[in-house]
Amino acid sequence: QVRLVESGGGLVQAGDSLRLSCAASGDTFSNHAMGWFRQAPGKERIFVAAVSLKGDSTHYLDSVNGRFTISRDNAKSTVYLQMNSLKPEDTAVYYCAAKRTRGGSYYYTRALSYDVWGQGTQVTVSS
After folding, report:
1. Which of 47, 50, 117, 124 sits a CA distance of 20 to 30 A from 110?
2. What HEC string does the chain produce?
3. Pairing of strands 121-126, 116-117
4. Dihedral in degrees, nearest 10, Cα atoms 122, 22, 50, 40
């Protein structure tokens, strides 16, 4: 089973950028579709972005589309979330997730689709 460790969170001001990383180990990373989710205090965990096995298909939450970019480097077993033009409403704990899949250019937006989760990294955006 793959294991996931997120990094790159922090405290930034509105308009700043951050890049989150999620390093995978323990299983073949390229066999897993990947996603990013976030959970704000007192709210449910929601989908943010997803990427297919080879990185050829991506999908985003409407409110981050055009500001966030998900990418993956299968040689480094890492998925990234580049976050630009951050807003206070982006404040949350961000989690990466992995879904083992057989192939194809599929991405997954439902949390229940994913098999493995990281521990999360806090992103705080001040106004």
Report:
1. 124
2. CCEEEEECCEEEECCCCEEEEEEEECCCHHHEEEEEEEECCCCCCEEEEEECCCCCCEEECCCCECCEEEEEECCCCEEEEEECCCCHHHCEEEEEEEEECCCCCCCCCCHHHCCEECCCEEEEEEC
3. unpaired
4. -10
Q: What percent of the chain has pLDDT over 90?
A: 94
Q: How far apart are CA 104 and CA 98, in angstroms?
A: 15
Nearest-angstrom CA–CA distance, 21 and 73: 11
Residues 6+ apart with CB under 8 A from 23: 4, 5, 7, 76, 77, 78
Residue 31 tokens read as: 């066999």
Confidence of residue 104 (pLDDT cuts 50, 70, 90): confident
pLDDT, tens digit, 9 for 90 and up, residues 17-55:
999 999 999 989 999 999 999 999 999 999 999 999 999
> How far out from the chain centre does Cα 43 lie?
18
Nearest C-alpha neighbor of 37 from the set 125, 117, 104 = 117
